[in-house]
Amino acid sequence: MNMKQNELLKNTRIDKRPEEIIEEHDYTEMTGQLSRTNFVFRIS
Amino acid sequence: MKIGIITDTHDHHENVLKAVEIFNAHKVKYVLHAGDIVSPFAAVAFSRVEGAEFIAVLGNNEGELVILFEKIAEFGGRIYPDVYKGTIDGKRIFMTHRPSVIDEMAASGKFDLVIYGHTHKQDIRKVNDTLIINPGESTDWMTDTSCVVVVDTADMSHEVISLV
Question: Is the pTM of this model over 0.80?
Answer without folding.
Answer: yes
